[in-house]
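User: Please fill in residues for this 529-position structure.
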C-alpha cells in the first residue's frame, strides 16, 4: 500500500492472531437458510441434493486449503479443523473466517446447477462464519460431539415435525405436539404413527457428514513398456459415522492423529463451560464507525487466468461496483462504500447494531454475500468468458472513533488508488508498447516520483494521465441518495414522494467538497475538516 500522511489510520487495526497451541476451527452456517430453503423449494425435512451440494463445497475447501485436515457438517453448517501447527495467514482470525466463507460461497453458486439443474438460483446465498479456538484436543472433541449431538436432535425433531405436517397437522399444531418431548417419545411417534424406524433413515441425515484426507495410490504416468508409475496422493473422502468424537473413530485415522492429535477419553457429557466458550463472540466498540474492507485473494493470478485488460479492465471494475451496490441494498446499515481494483471498503452507520456489532458476523456476511454476487453476476459483465475457478476475498473489520479519522481512512484508500494506478499505467505501457519484460519495467520505474511518471506517459506514449477515465484514477464510491418525485393524487393534487436509491460516482473524496455536498451520508453536524 502507498505511503501517505493518512497511513496513521492503520494503527486502528487490531491484531487477532489465534495463538498457539490453540487448535483452530472455522465454522460456517447459512444465513436465513430457512427462507432460502423455502424459496428454492428444498424437500422437507431433508433435501439430499442440498446436503450433497454442501458436502461438495466443503470438499472443495479441503482441496483448496491444505492446512484444513478435517471437516464436519450437517444441514446448512460446516466446521473446518486446521492442523495444530498451521501458520495459514499467520493464524489471523479475520483472514481465516473470511477466506473460508468467501470461497465456500463462491463454490456454492458455481456448483448450484450441478445439483439443481432444473432450478434457478433466485438470489445469492450467504453464510455466517466465525473462528472457534480449542485450547486442547479435549476441547476440540467436546466441540465435535456438541455439533453432532445438535445434528441428531435437530434432525429427529424436524423429521417428526414434517411427518406430522404431511399427515395433515398445521405447523403450529405439530410444534405444540412435539413441545417438551424427549428422544424416545419422538422415536415412538415416528414408528407407531408413520411406520418409520429412525435408525433406518440415511446416515447423512442422522449423523451428518465428515470429510478428511486419506492417502490413496494413483497412476501418475506410464512407462514406455506400459507399466503404470504410482504415487501416493492425499484425497478428500466423505464418511458418515455415528460418533465422530469417539476415540475409536478419530484414532483409527493416522492422518488425523498426525495433524491434530488423538482423543484419549470418551465424551460422557459435554461441559456447559465448553459450550459457552464455543458461543462467545467479541463485540465492536459502540458509537464508532465500523469499516469492513474486503480484498481479492490472489487476484493477480485471477486477472491473468481470466485475461483482464491491463492496466484496467472496465468490465471487471464495473462487476466489483455492481456487487458493492448489491451489498448496500442488502445490508441497510451500510451508508457508504469506496472501491478500487479488487478491494472495497464498506462503512456502517455509527450507531449500527447490525448483528449486535459482532465482528465475525459483520465481516463474514459481507464477504460471503459479495462473493456469491460476484459469481452470479459474472456472465452479466463477461458473457463471452467462462468463470474458470471460484474467486475469493478476505476481509477485516476496523473501528474508527471519529468522522475525521474515518474520512482520513477513505482518503488513504483514494491516495493508494491514485499511486497504484499511475504506476500500473506506466508499467503496462512499457510492457505493451515498448516491449520491456515485467522485470525490466519494474526496474525502470523503481524510485520514480509522480511527476516523472506523468512525464513518461506524455513523452513516450502521448498520454495525459489526468485525461484517463476517472474511475481508473479515483476509484468508485456508492451511497444512498434521496430522490423526490412529484406524484399526482386524485384528492390531494400534486404530492411529493421521497425514496432512496444507491448511486455510483467517481470523484475526489479527499477534499471536503464531496462531503459538504452530501452531509446526510455521515449524518453529523460537527465540523470534520
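Assistant: Residues filled in for all 529 positions:
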Amino acid at each position: 500500500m502507498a505511503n501517505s500522511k493518512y497511513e496513521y489510520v492503520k494503527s486502528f487495526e487490531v491484531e487477532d492472531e489465534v495463538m498457539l497451541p490453540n487448535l483452530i476451527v472455522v465454522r460456517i452456517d447459512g444465513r436465513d437458510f430457512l427462507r432460502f430453503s423455502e424459496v428454492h423449494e428444498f424437500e422437507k425435512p431433508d433435501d439430499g441434493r442440498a446436503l450433497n451440494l454442501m458436502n461438495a463445497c466443503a470438499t472443495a475447501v479441503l482441496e483448496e486449503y491444505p492446512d484444513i485436515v478435517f471437516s464436519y457438517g450437517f444441514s446448512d453448517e460446516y466446521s473446518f479443523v486446521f492442523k495444530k501447527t498451521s501458520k495459514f495467514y499467520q493464524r489471523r482470525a479475520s483472514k481465516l473466517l473470511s477466506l473460508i466463507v468467501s470461497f465456500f460461497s463462491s463454490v456454492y453458486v458455481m456448483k448450484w446447477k450441478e445439483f439443481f439443474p432444473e432450478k434457478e438460483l433466485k438470489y445469492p446465498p450467504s453464510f455466517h462464519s466465525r473462528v472457534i479456538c480449542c485450547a486442547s484436543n479435549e476441547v476440540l472433541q467436546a466441540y465435535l460431539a456438541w455439533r453432532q449431538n445438535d445434528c441428531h436432535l435437530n434432525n429427529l425433531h424436524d423429521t417428526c415435525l414434517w411427518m406430522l405436517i404431511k399427515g395433515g397437522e398445521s405447523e403450529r399444531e405439530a410444534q405444540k405436539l412435539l413441545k417438551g418431548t424427549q428422544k424416545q417419545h419422538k422415536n415412538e411417534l415416528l414408528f407407531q404413527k408413520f411406520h418409520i424406524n429412525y435408525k433406518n433413515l440415511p446416515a447423512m441425515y442422522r449423523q451428518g457428514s465428515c470429510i478428511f484426507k486419506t492417502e490413496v495410490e494413483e497412476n501418475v504416468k506410464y512407462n514406455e513398456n506400459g507399466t503404470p508409475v504410482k504415487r501416493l496422493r492425499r484425497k478428500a473422502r466423505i464418511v458418515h459415522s455415528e460418533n465422530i468424537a469417539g476415540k475409536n473413530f478419530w484414532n483409527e485415522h493416522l492422518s488425523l492423529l498426525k495433524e491434530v492429535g488423538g482423543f484419549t477419553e470418551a465424551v460422557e457429557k459435554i461441559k456447559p463451560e465448553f459450550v459457552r466458550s464455543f458461543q462467545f463472540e467479541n463485540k465492536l466498540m459502540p458509537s464508532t464507525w465500523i469499516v469492513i474492507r474486503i480484498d481479492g485473494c490472489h487476484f493477480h493470478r485471477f486477472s491473468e487466468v481470466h485475461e483482464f485488460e491491463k492496466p484496467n479492465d472496465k468490465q471487471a471494475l464495473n462487476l466489483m461496483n455492481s456487487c458493492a451496490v448489491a451489498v448496500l441494498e442488502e445490508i441497510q446499515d451500510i451508508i457508504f462504500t469506496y472501491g478500487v481494483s479488487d478491494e472495497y471498503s464498506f462503512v456502517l452507520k455509527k450507531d449500527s447494531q447490525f448483528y449486535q456489532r459482532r465482528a465475525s458476523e459483520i465481516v463474514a456476511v459481507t464477504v460471503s454475500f459479495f462473493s456469491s454476487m460476484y459469481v452470479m453476476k459474472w456472465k452479466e459483465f463477461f458473457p463471452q468468458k467462462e468463470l474458470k475457478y471460484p474467486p475469493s476475498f478476505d476481509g477485516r473489520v476496523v473501528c474508527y472513533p471519529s468522522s475525521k479519522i474515518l474520512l482520513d481512512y477513505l482518503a488513504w484508500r483514494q491516495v493508494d488508488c491514485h499511486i497504484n494506478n499511475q504506476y500500473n499505467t506506466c508499467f503496462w505501457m512499457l510492457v505493451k508498447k515498448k516491449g520491456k519484460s515485467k522485470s525490466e519495467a519494474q526496474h525502470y520505474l523503481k524510485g520514480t516520483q509522480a511527476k516523472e511518471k506523468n512525464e513518461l506517459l506524455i513523452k513516450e506514449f502521448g498520454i495525459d494521465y489526468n485525461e484517463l477515465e476517472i474511475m481508473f484514477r479515483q476509484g468508485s464510491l456508492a451511497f444512498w441518495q434521496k430522490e423526490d418525485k412529484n406524484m399526482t393524487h386524485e384528492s390531494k393534487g400534486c404530492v411529493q414522494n421521497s425514496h432512496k436509491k444507491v448511486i455510483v460516482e467517481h470523484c475526489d473524496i479527499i477534499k471536503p467538497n464531496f462531503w459538504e455536498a452530501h452531509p446526510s451520508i455521515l449524518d453529523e453536524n460537527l465540523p470534520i475538516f
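For context: The longest strand covers residues 209-222.
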